[in-house]
Every structure is written in structure tokens, then in C-alpha cells.
Amino acid sequence: xxxxxxxxxxxxxxxxxxxxxxxxxxxxxxxxxxxxxxxxxxxxxxxxxxxxxxxxxxxxxxxxxxxxxxxxxxxxxxxxxxxxxxxxxxxxxxxxxxxxxxxxxxxxxxxxxxxxxxxxxxxxxxxxxxxxxxxxxxxxxxxxxxxxxxxxxxxxxxxxxxxxxxxxxxxxxxxxxxxxxxxxxxxxxxxxxxxxxxxxxxxxxxxxxxxxxxxxxxxxxxxxxxxxxxxxxxxxxxxxxxxxxxxxxxxxxxxxxxxxxxxxxxxxxxxxxxxxxxxxxxxxxxxxxxxxxxxxxxxxxxxxxxxxxxxxxxxxxxxxxxxxxxxxxxxxxxxxxxxxxxxxxxxxxxxxxxxxxxxxxxxxxxxxxxxxxxxxxxxxxxxxxxxxxxxxxxxxxxxxxxxxxxxxxxxxxxxxxxxxxxxxxxxxxxxxxxxxxxxxxxxxxxxxxxxxxxxxxxxxxxxxxxxxxxxxxxxxxxxxxxxxxxxxxxxxxxxxxxxxxxxxxxxxxxxxxxxxxxxxxxxxxxxxxxxxxxxxxxxxxxxxxxxxxxxxxxxxxxxxxxxxxxxxxxxxxxxxxxxxxxxxxxxxxxxxxxxxxxxxxxxxxxxxxxxxxxxxxxxxxxxxxxxxxxxxxxxxxxxxxxxxxxxxxxxxxxxxxxxxxxxxxxxxxxxxxxxxxxxxxxxxxxxxxxxxxxxxxxxxxxxxxxxxxx
Length: 710
Description:
By secondary structure, this protein is of the alpha+beta class. It has five domains: about 1-60 and about 125-210, 2-Layer Sandwich (Alpha-Beta Plaits), CATH 3.30.70; about 65-120, no CATH class; about 215-335, no CATH class; about 340-540; about 560-705, Isoleucyl-tRNA Synthetase, Domain 1 (Orthogonal Bundle). The strands form six sheets. A five-stranded antiparallel beta sheet has the order 2-3-1-7-8, with helices on one face. Strands 13-15-16-14 form a four-stranded antiparallel beta sheet. A three-stranded antiparallel beta sheet has the order 4-6-5. The longest helix is centred in the last third of the chain and has 27 residues, at about 610-635. It is flat and about 95 Å long. The two termini are about 40 Å apart.
């Protein structure tokens, strides 16, 4: 077994693509090795701003040797009466590069046939790799590929070199006008120049000695160490945001930490402004004192180690102070106006040419939230807060600060509200109405903020669906999938017992005067869209697809569907439930489309099995009702994207009560002819089965549950 290395050297790659590109390259290599049937070990990925690479430490030098059997013509058609081969036999042998005498005759279900048995494989792996690696590189997907020079090859960045080694031997191929070699390149500043790789197993170590940490995890840990080292023994603490850490790690080939300081007067700015300017614009890490309050320091990661560190530090400080001075100007300029005055300017900001301005959108949100607040019967205090917030909701979108730093929308609404003396609760709602800002960001804690956030996003989703601009395939230019995930997360966390469909209908109603179109089809489409997002999240947590679809009903509240999915998933792992499920489906098939509206009449029982089942129904119904009630109390509303609630332990009694129906139901189905000749008897027996079906159906659409076995 020999090691295999493939490295693609490029101009600086986008930080977000390095891990993704390396994984795609690894996927392509695995596909090739499996296709040519070569035994191999694990495929490891590496990457830095100037390269992505894969290293397979053990690859067989030859493809697998295997026997291939090909069936030819029937024996009767292969030889004439004298036993001489016919043209059919001769042609079959020639097609397989064999002589007729090398063919064998074997019996099959259709009689004796000629077979050609050939030994396949055993080709040199290096030769097959040389013929396929060009395509592997060209087929690596990327969102925006580019071309350069006069060539036709496209890649996310211009390719500068390619390293391809199998053992100590070069794998010869060409891509983008570059011949693969054994040369890679050192750190651009610290150790410039080429370096030859003689053994792929030395790849990581050689680059490390050349000042390149090509292992992303190693570089990430080194970055964290450098951040802490930059602080030294000062009574400070660096704030390490994981997303920023991942980004900065992939902006350097070897990290060097630098501690900087900015003008103390900038501490007058809201903390979130300071953090946003440092993290989003400069890729700096904010620093706090041991008391948790932000301090006038920052930590930066450089890709170069220089003798005069103060020169680099001064450059960083100068740029950051300039940015913060701009933010200070915005902060002071925006506070010259009240939020109500900023709200008046929303009519000058276009939301979408077919959906009006931001002011139009806020007006729709105002109408829909008031309607929903009545349905939810929120408290008087909450209604009062809603009335105070609505006139200034999203007013910060017209401020200079948010125009420069869009990530601060909502946050600046809160800060400006506090600055002009509004109640802290009102300020908090202004911020929470814009949450969550990212897929795993925190959700609104206040129910008024949650209501605003939901109806704001539903206005966006319903609006774009109304004008035919919903997501298609992998394209989602308006972020509607992300908005839908936020909606179902909030609805489940709040535990509101109003179906999402009703909320969508209210939102669509506010759009009707603008679009002058029928909204029912849009309501149906958006309802399915949100429903699919909820089902998808539950599946990501390991709940089987058939169970989520069985438990979820588009006409019911999100919290109801999520609880049923958890409960049904739990039941499917317990004792005899899969057997009961099989009996349920059998009973359901018998009922079919038959009209069984009649009541159960004991006088029509003809078999003891009927009485046995009928007597068991009362306890069965009560156990099912109690199980659902207890499960609903146990599954306290939670964030759908957080960990699933623990399975409750106190449901065993109710579960046993449900499973107790299995024996009488099994006995009934085995001993009783349901489709009796007497119409009344048949209807009575179907009514018994219908009672079982309707009771179990309160757990979900159980006909959809598949693949559940013990």
C-alpha cells in the first residue's frame, strides 16, 4: 500500500471555501478510487489560503483482481450438428478476446449457455489516476467559478501549481495548462519559495517546517493560543466567537497574535457597535476586563511575523480608530432625531418594487400583529407594549448607523430607544422583533417580540410567494428558507396553539389590497413550505422521515406536531408497539372507504372476540388520552434547533394501557370475519375497528409510519 497526495495550489482562496473545497476534492478522490476498484485507507483533507489538498495514507498500487463472467449465446445456437462452432460462438469469443475453446458451457434456468470467464483488474493505480485527476479537479463544485488567461478551465481561483504523488512517483497529468509535479510552496512571507515533496507522508511536516500549518484543526488551535498569548498576563479576556475564529483561521497560513488598543473615548458607543466594527469589519477579537465589561483593547491575527510589531499594531489601531470615529459620528447624528422621526423616513426605503416600501411592510405587520394578538388573547400589558412598539418598529432601518452596519438592525432600535428614555421593556421588544439573526441565534424571549418577529417574516415569505418569487431548487435569493426556519422555531418555543396556516392567512390578507390577487393558493403554498421546514428540522434530530410525516398535520399548530413526532418516535422503540402498528394498518385496510358511522351495538356480537375487544376499548381510550396529556406537559415548548427534550420516564403506565389493546385486537382479527354476510353485523364489526383506528390516530397518521421494527 502506498500513500497518495493531491494538492491544488491557487491564488488566495475565500476563507469560507477552504474546508468546503477540500471536502469536495476528497469526495471526488473517493469516487475515483471506488470506481476503479482500488483498496484504500482514510482520505484526509487539508487546506490553507493558498491550497486545498487530500492525503490518502494507504492506496493499493494495483486495482482489485476480479473474475468477470459474461453470458453468450445458448449452446444449441453455438455449435452445429457436427459440433463445430457457429458464427455466434466465434463472434462471442472474439468480442471477449478469447478462443472458442476457452469458453465454457454452464447450465442456467433457460438451459445450457456459453460463458466467457475473464480475469479483470490488476491495472496500475497510478496510470488510472493520471487519466482521471484532471476531471476530478475540473468537477469540484463552487458557487462562483472563474476563468483566467486563454484556457478554458474554470476554478474558484486561478490555479498556480498542482502536486500529485503516488508513493514517491509523480502522477503525470495536466490541468489549466499546468503539469502536475512534486513541488509545493512555502509560506509567502516567512519562507518563500518552492519545496519538493518526496514522500506524501512527509507533506504536513515539511509544510510545517516551511511555516505553513496546512492542517486546519492544528491552525485553529494555534490561532487560539496566539490570541491568549497576545494578552499575556494582563487582566483581560479575549472574546472568541466561533464563526470569527473559523474565518480568521482560514485567512492565514500561520497565525501570529497582536494586541492593540483603541481610543478610550470610543467606549461611549454601545457595546454591540464596538463588537460589530471590530469583528465584522476588521476581523478583530474584542477584549473584556475580568468584570465582563468591554475594554479598549483588541486582538488581531496576522499572517506574518515581523521584527517591528509596533508598526503593524499602529496600522491596525489607526484603521480601527477611524472606523469607530465614523460609528461615533453616526451615533451622534442619529440621536438628533426621535425614533418616530426615523420611522417617517421608512417610506423612502424600497422593500421590493412589487411589495412597496419598508413603511408599507411595517403597516402590514401592524395590521397582522393586532389581529393575531386578539386570537392569542395576550395580556393587557402585552397589548399596551405592542401599541407602543408598532409606531417605531424597524425605525432604525432609516438610521445612518444601520445603513453602514446592517447587522445592527434591531440592536440599534433598542439603543436609540434607551437613549431617548423609553422603557427598557419597549427597547428590548424592538430588538427581539428582529431575532433570530442567524440560524442558531437566540430567539425572542418576550411574547410581543416573538409575535412581531413571526409576522414580520411571514409578511416577507407570503409576499414573495404571492409574486412568484419563492425559492427554486438551490436558489433562495431572499432567504425565505432561513425565515421559515425562524418562524417554526419561534412558534414551537412559544408553544402557541394557533396553526401556522391561520397566521399565514392573516398575513396574506394584509397583502390582498396591494396585489389584488387571490390569496388562498398562496396560503396553501406557504403553509406547505413552513411545514416542510419543520419536518426537515425534526429529521435532522434523528426522527425518521415516516414518523415526522405521520405525526405532522399542516392544519395543526407547530407545537402539536413537534410533540406528536417526539411521542411517536418514542413509542416506536417500545415493546410491542410495532406489532400493534401492524394490526392498526390491517384494521385500517379493512375499514377502507366503508361508511362506518354507526354506533357499536353489543346485541349484534356473534363471537366472544367481539365482546372482548369492545370491553377493552374504554381503558384503551383513556390510556391514549392520558398519554397525550402527560406527554404535552412533559414536552415543555423548546427551540426546535436545540437538543430535543428528554424522553419522559413517567409514561409507562399509559403506554402499557395502549399496548393492552393488542391482544384483543389480534384475537378479533384472527377469529372474526369482519366482512360478514349480514350487513348489520359487518357494520358493527367495522365500527369496532373504527373506534380502535380513531383512538390510535390521535397519535398521528399511523398509516404513514414505515420501517419500524424491533
